[in-house]
Each structure stands twice: as C-alpha cells, then as structure tokens.
Amino acid sequence: MRRGRAADGGGDPVTAARRWAGFDVGGQSVKAVLAGDNGRPVASARRPTGLDTSLDELAAALGDALKEMSAGARVDGVGIGMAGVMGPDGILKGSPNLPRLVGTAIETELGDRLGCPVSVDNDANCAALAEGWVGAAAGASDFLLVTLGSGVGSGLVIGGELYHGTTGYACELGHTVLVKDGRRCGCGNRGCLEAYVSESAARSLLEDAPAELRRVAGRLVSERGFGYAQALFALADEGDSRAREIAAAMIDALGAGLASAVNLLDVTLVVIGGGIAPAVFDRIEQLEEAIDRSLFARPVSSLTIAAARCGSDAGAIGAARAAMLAAEAVR
Ligand SMILES: [Zn+2]
Fold first, then answer.
1. C-alpha 173 to ligand 1 mean position (Å)
2. Which of 129, 182, 198, 268 matches a 20 to 30 Å C-alpha distance to 145?
3. What are the extents of the domains in the chain?
C-alpha cells in the first residue's frame, strides 16, 4: 500500500471512530462504501466507469464519491478492489475493465490524487476479506472464497490473512486445468475450470446446444434480463433434457474443481458467492456428491460449503477491510 497520512477533513484523529472507504471498481460503475472498524457500512455511493476511463477520471470519480460519503469527516484509508492483478512492484499487470490503467503504479498514483493511503487488491480477494470480516466466514482463520460470475474468482485466507503468493497471482482457481486440452478459456488456455462453470462458460456451452434450446435461452436473456447460466439452470428446472445435462455437467465440474482445491489447500470452509451461486445451492446435494467423488482421504461431510453473505457489496466492503488491514500493518 501507499503510505501517507489520512485524509483529514476535521475531527480528532486520536479519539474519532475510524472510517475506511472501500471501492469496487467494475467495468460499468464504481460501488463505494464507508465503513467503521466493525465493517458496518455507514454510507454508500456509486459512480459510472467505462472501458476508456483514465487514471485521472477514475481518481475524480473516487474523490467525488469519497466526498459524498464522508461529508467532510476524516477518512483513515482507501481500499480498491478491481478485476486484474497487482504485481509485487505495485504495478497493475492486467485490468479487463479499465485497460488504460495497466502498467500504472496505481496505489501511488491514486494515493497522490486522493491525498490519503490507498490499497489495491483483486476483486475476488476483496470479496474474501469481506466474508471473513462480516460475512459467512467471520471468525474463520482459514477458508476459500469462490465467486461464480462472468468468470470464476477466488480468494484464499490462511491464518487470517489473504494469501497472495510470490508474485501476486495466487489462488486463480478459475484457471486451474480441469480438462487437458479442453474448452477454450477467456485467458487463452484450454480446459480451465472457468471454461466449464461461469457465465461465459454457459454462453459458450449454449452456442453448442440444439437450436431450440439456444432460442429459448436467448429469449430469457434478451427479454427477461437473465444471465446465460441463470437461463440454463431455469430451463433445466423446467425439464428441458439438454439444459439438465449441461447444468449437471457444470455442477460436476465445479465439484471436481473444489475437491482439487481442498485436496491442495486443506481448508474445511468453502464460501461460494456470485450471481450463479443461488442456482448452485439449489443443487447442493449434487455438488456435494461431485466433491465427494474427488476428495482425498475424507468425506465431503468434513467440509462446510457456505453461501456468501455480503452480496453485491462484497467487493467494496472487502476493499474497506483491505484499507484497514494495510493501515494496521504499517503502524
Ligand atoms: Zn483460464
């Protein structure tokens, strides 16, 4: 994180309750929360973003939201969660939503513009921080968080701390290989878990499905605002045999992927969130059977598979937590 003094808009820095701003920077908007030490949001805000958003435009949007939420009061630190990877040198290595920011020393640059310490982490890591702070993993020292959305995000907490790995790329469960030479993944490799269970996987699997299923699913997407995975699971529930096969294969793939993760990491708590999670929990018995088939030396009953609780605020809440942890680490 960038070290510096807190943004001081007044108040007593010693006795005033601390306030942490968390921003979830997505491809279309920034979600922001202001939270106290207990993780409870006391204010929230939202600002638009776009693929061509520049560093200065992002800083202006964040500063504006910060001003709205804090109403002039002191903010002790700013955390930012975004898709992509932060290298150990503080340079943003990849950013699917804000490509103009790649190559930027983003913590330093935003810290200078906002005038307070800034801490940046991957959005799935922030979701894990949120669940460990005030969500389904509160109080747990070791757990794996998996988000099932447009891709598969994951964050690993070991001994109460996020595990980033040697170069910052740790815990990319979505890009572990499930099928050698399998389906093409958005990352360019083949056979990744994300190519079998995610919104993008559902879309791709539907392209290979019979025309009638494609047509009905497409209508749910275009006319009723469903995601492709949601449409697929809904049609499976309605009894479409091909949709049921595809949905079952998605759950089986997820089970195999989670079992491999547990075999590697020996965590006993797995928290699942993201837009596809509700459909997964509707099929929890099938998921547990799939995990059980590939789990080494223990039954699936030794695991807790829990639904994430922080919902769509997870990224922003976890970013606020990242700001708090960064401030405490430099004391
Ligand atoms: Zn991949």
1. 9
2. 182
3. 20-126+312-329, 136-308
